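Minimal example, chain plus guanosine-5'-monophosphate.
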Amino acid sequence: MNDAIPASFVVSAPSGAGKTSLADRLLAGVSNITRTISHTTRTPRSHETDGVDYFFVDRPAFEATVAADGFLEWATVHCHLYGTPRAEIERIQLGGNDALMVIDVQGAAAVRRMLPDAVTIFVLPPSRKALIERLDGRDGLGGGEGRAERLRVAEHEIAEYVSYDYVIINDDFELAVQELVAIVNAERCRQRRRQADAEQLLADFRAASADA
Ligand code: 5GP
């Protein structure tokens, strides 16, 4: 018995707050939820695979998808283009799964307009210092300009937490994973999502009473 309407979850965070690791743990530990694979014009990092982490495309291909209205939302982030293909959401939800979008604050704002039922979650680092340490430890980012720019962007992104339904502070990673899983499970138990199952059960009871 599970005729629930699929849900859409959006996770955003400043770069270095740990949203990708959190999303990976959610996907590994909870069934029937699938991450949308975005298109991006940035080049792949050493550990990334085309079609798994992103679809890595050039700017003309990205712009052609924009022109064809193929993105649910798209945005420029750190000088590169990123977009969530409509076809990804459709593929996931037609398969009966919930969709997880790990996207920036501009993308989240667009999804809120397009899918008002989407559940939005913001991940915060425990402190500015912790974010700086995580950024410095990251392959390819280093210190200097790149870091200063990411911290400036982080400040603007953090200010957007007020628009999200939930906020997770990623201090103790295991606790943050538990909180994310709890949000997904609680949202799945919402009355409107369980309505089809509850109504079916009620119809069975009523039919049995009528027969008695
Ligand atoms: P990165 O290049 O580090 O993987 O991602 C940079 C930022 O772009 C992150 O905040 C990430 O969540 C965001 N991002 C990834 N995919 C999308 C997308 O499809 N749309 C939007 N708006 N942001 C995205």
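The helical segments are 19-29, 59-67, 86-94, 105-114, 128-136, 144-158, 173-188, 191-211. Residues 191-211 form the longest helix (21 residues).
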